[in-house]
């Protein structure tokens, strides 16, 4: 017997490679379904979106550069029937919020703005600064969107969004409203490359 308790292979003379972790054989209730598109994200409820967000990766600041299509996904505080109506409204081709545009300024910081009312000639509202920082949703980092700048109205300055990547070109976001110095999760949103 080898000193570390593992016998070498009789064929190669080397100890066996460590076993690969086994994938679950069936999805559990806590395992969110795979999401590859905004439509996939829109089919998930708040609990599934939260689990997907925790398992997502933190993108680099330049990874979101460009014009991303947006979709409001869920408002956790609403009853299910009302949330369903709002999700259908958000999927409508004429929903006012069209997405976000991002520009990085190096690897650590950037800025962005929301696009509303049109894809061809959108209005651009509510500028935000971007950077990586601790998530409000768990013990991990997230891509942060901070609306606290003097050009935005006071109500908008209290918004703190964060984003993580769930698939190539697909991002899941959480929007928080800071009230009395406490962030409160208001909604989930998705962003995707065209």
Protein model, in words:
The chain is of the alpha+beta class and 194 residues long. It has one domain (44-192): Lipocalin, CATH 2.40.128. The protein is 16% helix and 38% strand. The protein has helices at 38-42, 46-55, 80-91, 154-157, and strands at residues 66-74, 97-104, 109-116, 123-134, 141-146, 159-167, 170-179, 182-192. Strand 6 and strand 7 (170-179) form a beta hairpin. The radius of gyration is 21 Å and the shape is globular. The N and C termini lie far apart (59 Å).
Mean pLDDT: 82
Q: What is the total number of structural domains?
A: 1
Largest sheet: 8 strands, antiparallel, barrel
Strand content: 35-45%
Q: Output the structural class.
A: alpha+beta
Q: What is the β-strand count?
A: 8
Question: Which structural traits does this protein have?
Answer:
alpha+beta; 4 helices; 16% helix; disordered N terminus; 194 residues; globular; 8-stranded antiparallel barrel
Summary of the model, kept short:
The protein has 194 residues and is an alpha+beta fold.
List the helices and strands and how they pair.
Blueprint: H1 38-42, H2 46-55, E1 66-74, H3 80-91, E2 97-104, E3 109-116, E4 123-134, E5 141-146, H4 154-157, E6 159-167, E7 170-179, E8 182-192
Antiparallel strand pairs: 1-2, 1-8, 2-3, 3-4, 4-5, 5-6, 6-7, 7-8
């Amino acid at each position: 017997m080898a000193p570390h308790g593992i016998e070498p292979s009789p064929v190669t003379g080397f100890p066996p490679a460590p076993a690969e972790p086994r994938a679950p054989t069936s999805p559990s209730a806590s395992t969110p379904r795979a999401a590859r598109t905004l439509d996939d994200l829109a089919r998930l409820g708040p609990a599934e979106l939260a689990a997907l967000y925790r398992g997502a990766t933190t993108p680099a600041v330049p990874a979101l550069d460009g014009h991303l299509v947006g979709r409001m996904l869920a408002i956790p505080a609403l009853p299910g029937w009302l949330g369903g109506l709002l999700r259908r409204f958000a999927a409508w081709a004429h929903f006012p919020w069209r997405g976000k545009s991002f520009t990085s300024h190096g690897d650590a910081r950037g800025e962005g703005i929301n696009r509303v009312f049109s894809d061809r000639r959108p209005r651009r509202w509510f500028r935000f600064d971007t950077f990586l920082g601790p998530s409000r949703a768990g013990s991990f980092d997230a891509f942060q969107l901070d609306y606290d700048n003097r050009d935005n109205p006071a109500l908008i300055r209290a918004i703190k969004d964060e984003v993580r990547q769930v698939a190539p070109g697909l991002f899941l976001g959480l929007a928080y409203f800071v009230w009395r110095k406490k962030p409160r999760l208001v909604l989930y949103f998705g962003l995707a490359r065209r």
